[in-house]
Amino acid sequence: MNxxxxxxxxxxxxxxxxxxxxxxxxxxxxxxxxxxDIVFLEIETRGEQLEKGEVFGTVxxxxxxxxIFMPVAGKxxxxxxxxxxxxxxxxxxxxxxxxxxxxxxxEPEEVNxxxxxxxxxxxxxx
Length: 126
Hints:
This protein has four helices and nine strands; from the N terminus they run E-E-E-H-E-E-E-E-E-H-H-E-H.
């Protein structure tokens, strides 16, 4: 299971990569493998200010539909447009081309409350 050290993780299996006030968010390698083949993503929160823990979209796989949650508070400034035609990028490259949204972080200290790679690894192997 791929768990990059440079990211932070939620207990709901989202990851965040912070770069100053801007952050990329996606679902983890573990989450995409548990979901199976991803066939559709519904993310209609562009321009919205969302709080930590709020749903920002849903991911639809062959066997299930799951909500995706904000790891920190922020304004959704971009949705990965490649995923409209290629939702399988989330399965193939969850930490790269399969990112879901880009946000402007409004509560950067919330990142410190998230799991680091070692803590996330313990969570999924428990």
